[in-house]
Amino acid sequence: MTNTSTTTAGSRNLNVDAAVRNRYSRAADEKEAALCCPVDYDPQYLRQIPAEILERDYGCGDPSRELQSGEVVLDLGSGGGKICYIAAQIVGPSGKIIGVDCNDDMLALARTYQPEMSQKLGYDAVEFKKGRIQDLKLNLELLDEYLAEHPIHASSDWLRVEEHARHLCETSPLIPDESVDVVVSNCVLNLVRREDRQALFSEIHRAIRHGGRAVISDIVSDEDVPEHLQRDANLWSGCLSGAFREDEFIDAFENAGFCGLEIVSRQQEPWAVIEGIEFRSLTVRAFKGKEGPCLERNQAIIYNGPWRTVIDDDGHQLSRGRRMAVCDKTFQMYSRAPYADQISLIPPHREIPIEDAQTFACEDDAKRSPRDTKRGDSELTVLPADDCCGPDCC
Fold first, then answer.
1. What is the CA angle 293-349-393, rounded to 5?
2. What is the rounded CA–CA span in Å between residue 25 and residue 189?
3. Is 0.85 surpassed by the pTM of this model?
4. Which residues partner with 319 through β-bridges?
5. How far is CA 66 from the centre of its chain?
6. What domains appear along the chain, each with residue ranges and CATH number?
7. For the chain, which ranges sit under pLDDT 70?
């Protein structure tokens, strides 16, 4: 492990923004090994990707492993396009990949190989856009076009540009609301200033469709990063001093409204250690789907285990083997990943049309009577036939 010295000169925010921009511009032209962790990508997808992109890749995980055919995927901080071109092979011709980055040199590298990759794959599924990942509504290329025709010479010009930027967000958003199935990112969120991170996670949540998910690989720390390390622009641009503390990284997804959070990969040995603080790669999968009204449709669920009791992200306490009353929203949410494998769904005895459903008090954690969910006549008696349930059942 190499010892790293720190510097404290100047404003942290100013140094961080400039250092990240300049360092990644250089890294687009010449490989920099210190910007990435070793990652085992599926070699079948790497064979199609040009060597220059592979050499200029800077990441710490592989969120593409969590993608499926036909999905619309947004890659935040797409850089040279490696994850985008891997993802394009996974989602296939019926899917779509959108890469967002604000670095012109990285965007140029990624776009250079679009025609070649489209020819290799036999379809064109990848698009690269210029924007900041904490402000996914603002299309920076449209703003650049406006600035070329309306340069800034005075403060009044600046105010006019700000107004036009708001107009672009409203009329031509870079990423519209609920327009993608999956948001992925590979070692980029830690480069965003701490004061912008609430907006960052809110934007991720906004972009995802109901039932969709985020799969984010990033560098986290096991302890708080002290202020003097945060002021080191070189460490920040190197994905270290801007690292989330690992528990706060999880909290950020929860606070943004995500549910069903899972750590799908955690680097055992630290990638780096500075002043005793360990930095490692973490990949988190989080779902969007707990929004909406709670309506009573007489549905029930049984938590299958293995834990005796669990509490979900909406505060429902589920006891193993108990028939629990849930609202329609929760019933539908539990029918999908990541809950479906651990939940038995019990539909009602009599279907309640959604338009007739009343408000359900989710906070009560009520048990559901079997009489509400029995199939057929609740007074019916049915005994096994002479041959039981078939010659091979017993």
1. 125
2. 17
3. yes
4. 309
5. 11
6. 12-137+173-287 (3.40.50.150), 295-372 (3.40.5.100)
7. 1-36, 363-365, 374-382, 385-394
